[in-house]
Recover the amino acids of this structure.
């Protein structure tokens, strides 16, 4: 029966209003029913363990081989042993085929890895040679400094006539900007730079541990910052001050001709009066130590690269990689799957 036939005693206008009201009530009931159903699904997703435990009919069978027990709440297995048995069966069934497929076609990534290892070994040999050269320069410099200190001091001042007769020009300091005389420029700039260098800190949480290396980093522990100083030991103005120079100590700087050619002679002026070779020992030692640090840093980088390449090569044919990845060889006659560009 239609809606109008259910209400024959009403007027047509009232019949239409009654039909509309009934339709609205039906729509409200449908919306409420959908909301309740959606809420039940949301509760079931949020608390699956509670629903499974309340309703034993929703419990699934364990996926373990030959097991007929129901699963644990929130798991696919009834126990850990069933999961381990299923994983072992899958490995025994799938792994031999994957190993055969892996051995049939050559691995291009392994070939690239071998080439990378060859390049890394060559660079390591070059870095070792550079380190040995820097160590030899270190010992040679110490021998030159010792020979220079054994020279006799020239007290007549004949070798300092050029500085006395030269014009007293002034230059500006690169650190503080003050005008200074050319004769004492090196001495003033070195002291001025040390003042500004003490304001900055270069530290690390760990001390330096390098076998066979001497006199590289300062490594003085600062209890306030709880770090070790990482400046060069010979250049650290904060923890290593220059010793007081006696009056009878010779400069001993090796003299050169045309900037780089050694003459075999040494500066015989007293070290206090020599402004041309101020702190030459410290600067030469710092230069040699910097070469040694660069060679050691290069060796460390190459060692990290080698470890990355080797781990990638070992993991490429590992159990997890063979189980998760597969190379499909469509043509059994071609063993090399690389795409060749036609000439």
């Amino acid at each position: 029966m239609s809606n109008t036939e259910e209400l024959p005693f009403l007027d047509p206008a009232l019949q239409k209003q009654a039909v509309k009201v009934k339709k609205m009530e039906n729509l409200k009931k449908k919306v409420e029913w959908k909301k309740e159903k959606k809420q039940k699904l949301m509760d079931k997703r949020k608390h699956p363990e509670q629903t499974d435990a309340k309703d034993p009919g929703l419990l699934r069978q364990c996926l373990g081989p030959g097991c007929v027990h129901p699963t644990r709440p929130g798991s696919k297995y009834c126990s850990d042993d069933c999961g381990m048995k299923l994983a072992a069966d899958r490995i025994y069934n799938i792994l031999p085929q994957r190993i055969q497929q892996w051995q049939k076609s050559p691995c291009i990534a392994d070939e690239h890895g071998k080439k990378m290892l060859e390049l890394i070994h060559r660079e390591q040999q070059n870095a070792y040679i550079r380190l040995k050269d820097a160590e030899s320069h270190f010992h040679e410099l110490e021998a030159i400094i010792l020979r220079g200190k054994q020279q006799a001091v020239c007290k007549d001042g004949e070798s300092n006539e050029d500085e006395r007769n030269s014009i007293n020009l002034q230059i500006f300091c690169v650190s503080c900007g003050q005008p200074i005389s050319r004769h004492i420029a090196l001495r003033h700039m070195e002291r001025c730079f040390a003042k500004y260098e003490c304001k900055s800190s270069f530290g690390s949480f760990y001390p330096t541990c390098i076998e066979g290396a001497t006199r590289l980093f300062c490594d003085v522990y600062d209890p306030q910052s709880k770090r070790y100083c990482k400046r060069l030991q010979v250049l650290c103005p904060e923890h290593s001050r220059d010793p007081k120079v006696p009056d009878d100590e010779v400069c001993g700087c090796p003299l050169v001709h045309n900037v780089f050619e050694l003459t075999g002679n040494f500066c015989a002026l007293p070290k206090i009066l020599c402004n041309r070779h101020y702190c030459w020992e410290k600067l030469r030692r710092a230069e040699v130590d910097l070469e040694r640090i660069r060679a050691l840093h290069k060796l460390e980088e190459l060692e990290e690269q080698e470890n990355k390449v080797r781990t990638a090569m070992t993991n490429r044919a590992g159990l997890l990689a063979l189980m998760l990845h597969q190379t499909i060889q469509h043509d059994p006659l071609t063993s090399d799957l690389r795409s060749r560009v036609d000439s």
Remarks:
- The beta strands are 170-172, 179-181, 203-204, 221-222, 227-229, 254-257, 261-266.
- The chain has a mean pLDDT of 78.
- The longest helix spans residues 108-149.
- The two ends are 84 Å apart (CA to CA).
